[in-house]
Give the backbone structure.
Amino acid sequence: MAESKEKLKSEIKEELRSEGFTDQSCYQYISSSRRIARFKDKPSSPDDVEIKEWVQDIKAHLNTRKFKDREEAAAFIVSNLAGKARKEIIGRGIEISTNPEKIFEILIKVFGDGDILPVLQQRFYEYKQGSKEDLLSCSLKLVELFDEICVIREEFLVDRDNTLKGRLAECVRDNSLKRELRRLNLEQPRLSFFDLRDRAIDWIGRSDQNQKETGTLQESAVQNDEILKLVQEQSKQIAQQSKQILQQQQQINELMRGQFRGQRDMIREVRGRGQSRGRGRHSNRYGRQSEVRKCFKCGSEEHLLRNCPQNQDF
């Protein structure tokens, strides 16, 4: 065990010397027998640890070990780094490698998503509940965003509950729920974030029941309105169809009258031609045309020669 400690100490000294630091400028810490996964680089396989998980794990160890000062804690952090991550921190100099907060910030920035504190704070304070997101998922997302901030700045943990409660009251989608959460924050400030969230979920359940009952009545009213609109539309369609049928009937009547006038004029014309052709002729009882009998003396059709009044002159 002693040999492994000395070997690790020698490795750290050699790396610091290669970067231009002397033995007096570095403070080394040798980890205990409890092994911690050493962070090397961005995950390349599902089994590799992510930087945010590693930072949280390291912070848990820092809290349990109770280091005397910041340099000792920083040495413990560096001792659990390897590969690119270790070179990144040592290469930035003694000012970074002896400051735990700076080490975490650099590691998250370089080997994480590239998020820095202002970006994380903006993401937290601009977060809004999605249209298909329930309150449980919304509250857990807030906790996740806030914890990402605390990974870089632990001092934000002091007012964690109040910050989360305030953001929950502002990020929810329903305006009525916003007013209820604000009221609870004012009237019961000692409620924890999760107690506030649970009360909000209960309130939503009661509100949903009332909305269902109201929704049933509104749905019936809407259905009645839709039926009335449908009847009105059908009445309009029937009136329009009746108007179209009347117009078509008028057009048919006008066409028939035109045809009748044309046929009548044609009949008259035919009859006129027949009369002009049949002058001086008359039909007998069999319908045959025969010569009209006239008086040979005066030419009258009313009598024959033997009955002509002009015979008296002879």
About this structure: Residues 193-277 form the longest helix (85 residues).
